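In the current project phase, the collection of sequences with tokenised folds has grown. One resulting record follows, to show the layout:
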Amino acid sequence: MFKLGLTGGIGSGKSTVSKLLANWGASLIDTDQLARDLTGPGGAGIEPIRDVFGSEMIDSSGAMDRARMREHVFADETARLKLESILHPMIAAATERAAQQAEGRYIVFEVPLLVESGRWLSRVDRVCVIDCDRQTQLARVQARNGMPILTIERILDAQAAREERLAVADDVILNDNNVSLDKLTEQTAVLHQMWCKMS
């Protein structure tokens, strides 16, 4: 089955595009959702996280305290690498299981850190980047979940630069602040038709 890697920085609009593709018959595997499952109450990542980071990183529901962990790891590179070393192998295994069960026109792997991980380029047939400028990202993320600007800046700085993502892109969907939902849908539909022909 044809495999598409879909990526973009925080606030770029990956989820909007991936939902469109899923509605049109693609099989969506969202690695962020897999990570949330692993770090939710009873998730396989909880005890390893507790062992490394302590119980203060687990909230009263038994899930990882995402806000506290985000503040911690984006202020401390070593901590971020420790968290990634716990979760990334688990996410990879869950992704593989999901791919084996996938049914649809083609598979879309929604991977925020596709460029950063270095593993994905050899696992997909094409890479599509949702591209937008930094100011748009800042505004969207703050409007969406009220994160402090400094925290958003740290996340952006830890992610691949816009130029790095574009350098590996086979296809690009522009989603700056002046791009309407209709225009975004139109761009996505054109590429979807092309990917269907490739699958």
In short: The radius of gyration is 17 Å. The chain has a mean pLDDT of 94. The chain is about 55% helix and 10% strand. Strands lie at 3-7, 27-30, 107-110, 126-131, 171-174.
